[in-house]
Amino acid sequence: MPIISIANSKGGAGKTTLCLVLAQAIADAGKRVLILDADPNRPIQTWASRLNDRGTSALSQLSVDGDVTESNIVDKIDAARETNDFVLIDLEGTASVAVSYAVGQSDFVLIPLQGSQLDADQAARVIGLIRQNAKAYRREIPFGVIFTRVNPAIKPRDLAHIEQALAENKIPVFETRLYERAAFRSIFQVGMTLQELTPAIVSRPEVAVENALAVAQELIDRLAGEIRDVA
């Protein structure tokens, strides 16, 4: 089953939000999904606790494991392969041994990137780590950059510049962006899934649901392509 790591060594890139909304979209489609919360702050574990406190079964297909450490992450990944359709790993926002282990075990690494040069520089470090692990494990480790927290109304000049640089360096970039939506923040605050949100809680939750589904579909399409390439 696909192991997908979400990695960026810079905090605030939208890594945890991307991981959670992807997992919710895939689970809502009927797939069994496990999130390994390897971020020391355990933000997704905290969200899951709030969800459970509400006594909801909104996403019976989604589970979260927050007991992930440098010493057990490889064993956790191996065990998760056997019982889940998808495993998503929310990695810590710094370069570490645990990040390297997870990348080495991944079928795909998703790199969230805001439209700033600082984010782009840190994303380049993650790409370097992926390529280093690919050499060490003697296999290709597919990856893709996805722009996150994008303003749906305007396209800043910095974003256009970074897009051009990525294209010139032949870095794979998702066509779908994860937009800046209040609903993506609200799920953490209220301990709900995107699908549970209503207009009384946050404006236009259905737009956020559609955005999450579009990102999930592109990820699945890219995974299918990579699997065919290997086969």
From TrEMBL:
Coiled coil: none annotated. PANTHER family: COBQ_COBB_MIND_PARA NUCLEOTIDE BINDING DOMAIN-CONTAINING PROTEIN (PTHR13696:SF96), P-LOOP CONTAINING NUCLEOSIDE TRIPHOSPHATE HYDROLASE (PTHR13696). This is Chromosome partitioning protein.
